[in-house]
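Much of the work behind modern protein science is quiet bookkeeping, done one molecule at a time. The fold becomes a row of whole numbers, each drawn from a learned catalogue of backbone shapes. The protein below has been through that process, and both of its lines are reproduced in full.
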Amino acid sequence: MNYEEVKNKIYLRQGVDLGMQGDNFYVGLPDNTVYELPPAVYYVWTTLDGERTLEKTIEDSSSELQIDKQALIEPFLAILEKLLEAKLAVEKA
């Protein structure tokens, strides 16, 4: 996934937050598939609101987490790719 190609796209999380157990979060899909997400993946999932571009989402996260935007791009892209594969996120048309 190339940041320049996807930074202006908008993504929307899919599934329902089923809660937390220990350090992990659980998200369920309508087909009854349940995913156990580590905190970083869950955080990215929650930021995909279907309103902001990926670039704006990363900028907002950078400000919120007080982490340099450049340091967030690669992890965000890797997590987003996995969320898309698992159908926990979709590109908003």
Observations:
- The chain has a mean pLDDT of 96.
- The first helix runs from residue 3 to 6.
